Amino acid sequence: MFQGEFSNNMDDKGRVSIPAAFRDTLKTHHADERIVITRSPHSRYLTAYPMREWKRLQARIAATPPSPQLRAFKRIVISSAQEYIPDRQGRVLVAPSMREYADMDRAIQFAGAGETFEIWAKASWDKQLENDLVLAQGFELGL
Question: pTM for this structure?
Answer without folding.
Answer: 0.93
